[in-house]
Write a structure and sequence with these properties.
The structure holds 2 protein chains of 2 kinds.
Chain A (H helix, E strand, L loop, with lengths): L4 E3 L2 E5 L4 E6 L7 E6 L6 E6 L5 E4 L2 E5 L5 E6 L8 E8 L7 E3 L3 E6 L1
Parallel strand pairs in A: 2-11
Antiparallel strand pairs in A: 1-3, 3-8, 4-5, 4-9, 6-7, 7-8, 9-10, 9-11
Chain B lengths: L3 E3 L3 E4 L5 E7 L5 E8 L3 E8 L6 E2 L6 E7 L2 E6 L8 E8 L9 E2 L3 E5 L1
The chains are: A mainly beta, B mainly beta.
Chain lengths: 112, 114
């Protein structure tokens, strides 16, 4: 069974601080996605990383896929209240049908 | 813009009732998924469908069934609701094209079983 563990589970910071969220597994994934979910809404895709060691930047968000494709991280620089939400990593399942294995989630609260 | 809609945002049902949750997508996607979301557990896959009338069990199918009679509509059925099925239910769809794993989600239905 493929599992993805995220840490921390909850993060409360002040506006302007930097943070990193981790997504770890003992399984290898062909690709990994990061979603953000805001209150009252479904998750929305932020990025997909495919190659081991790949780094992608989305404004103040930096995503990295581990060399062995078993882990990933999301770094936010100078967090803003608009970054508040639940961050979920999701790996491409090895059982086909375009299924995803979702991580346990990191809830981020950025206070002004 | 892909749109996935769910029939209710909030639902309160009694133990033993039969519950129907409906999901409709407007982008002609082949794949549709039902998840439940609980704090600290992320999203867990209940059932999915890769074509009309086709369904596959996910990781936690017990106590649930599904129906997909039309491509755009995927229904989740709780045959006899129990309190441990109180949760947020999310529907998603994806295109089914090669290399495309992005899932588009509905806003969710928060179900409370009393």
């Amino acid at each position: 069974t493929q599992l993805l563990e995220q840490s921390p589970q909850f993060l409360s910071i002040q506006e302007g601080e930097n943070l990193t969220v981790y997504c770890n597994s003992s399984s290898v994934f062909s690709s990994l996605q990061w979603y953000r979910q805001e209150p009252g809404e479904g998750p929305v895709l932020l990025v997909t990383v495919v190659t081991g060691g790949e780094v992608k930047k989305l404004k103040r968000l930096t995503f990295q896929f581990g060399d062995a494709r078993k882990d990933s991280s999301l770094h936010i620089t100078a967090a803003q209240p608009g970054d508040t939400g639940l961050y979920l990593c999701a790996g491409e399942s090895n059982t086909g049908f375009q299924k995803l294995v979702f991580g346990t989630g990191t809830r981020l609260l950025v206070s002004p | 813009d892909v749109k996935v809609t769910q029939s209710s945002r909030y639902l309160v049902k009694r133990t033993g009732e039969k519950v129907f949750l409906e999901c409709v997508q407007d982008m002609d996607h082949e794949n549709m998924f039902w998840y439940r979301q609980d704090p600290g557990l992320g999203l867990r896959l209940i059932y999915f469908s890769y074509d009309v009338k086709m369904k596959e069990k996910g990781d936690i199918p017990e106590g649930y069934s599904v129906s997909r009679e039309k491509k755009e509509r995927f229904s989740l059925i709780l045959e006899s609701a129990s309190t441990n099925q109180t949760s947020m239910y999310l529907c998603a769809s994806s295109s089914g094209g090669t290399g495309s794993y992005e899932q588009y989600f509905g806003p969710g239905t928060r179900l409370t079983v009393t």
